[in-house]
Known about the structure:
Blueprint: H1 3-21, H2 32-40, H3 47-58, H4 63-84, E1 94-95, E2 98-99, H5 101-104, H6 107-126, H7 133-147, H8 152-162, H9 169-179, H10 181-194, H11 199-226, H12 229-232, H13 238-241, H14 247-251, H15 253-269, H16 279-290
Antiparallel strand pairs: 1-2
Helix pairs in contact: 1-3, 1-4, 2-6, 3-4, 3-10, 3-16, 4-6, 4-10, 7-10, 8-9, 10-11, 11-15, 11-16, 15-16
Amino acid sequence: MDIAAYLAGTAREVEAFLDRVLPRGSRYPSPLAEAIRYSALDGGKRLRPSLALAAAGCLGADRVEAMPVAAALEMIHTYSLIHDDLPAMDDDTYRRGKLTSHKQFSEAVAILAGDALLTQAFQVLGEAEGIPLERRLRIIVEIAVACGPAGLIGGQMADLNAAGNEVDLPSLEYIHTHKTGAMIQASVRCGALAVGAGNRELKALTAYGRRIGLGFQIVDDILDIEGDPEETGKATGRDRRHLKATYPALFGLQSSRLRARELIEEAIEALADFGEEADLLRAMALFIEKRSH
Length: 293
């Protein structure tokens, strides 16, 4: 399976949807709309929406049904990156190969652009009339939990608290499974929920999502050490400079690679009850392990 072609095709579909729903400058105070579109339409892997659409497709559904969910997930992910790059957080200059939002505009504009993306994401979900109301409400709650204090934001707080301090494995896994893993797991689950997944299917997809979420972050930690900035679109060595708690810092590169491989193998095993309809999800798990950006 050509996973690169799938991701590229999905990115085009998601960006086309985002281009239609994101604000344009004529109706909003300058430069708010410009800043929102600068970050949300600047490319990237679009991994989270791709996972949501693949999970929907795994259940035999038309991908279009889950597109509002996929787009909302990407909007929330983009908001998190804008805020993560701010001077009060990681203070990064480049993201996806170009200036971060606060460098291109200002800190205040970047904060507002992130706030706007997070808020509008829930509007997109609420207005997704192609998804039955009961499913929509469940998805909204699911994503709110995944990106709130019990998920992404809680993980970010734990990450900030851990910087410069010694951490044990449970603390490290808490950071990774919340800051990064919660939204990746929610992407898989919500893509499935959008098309009416049953409990048995959802359980298997949840196990898959949990493992690729943690595996993704471990690979991210590795790429921060040995990745090519031309491919990753951001400088390497950020975790070391900020004294971040990471798998390589705790266990070394080789053990980190082995742990990532174990998680990907477990993720694929979680899909054992699915047939070839889950091949795309299996291929995406392998892509997460082998990715270079």
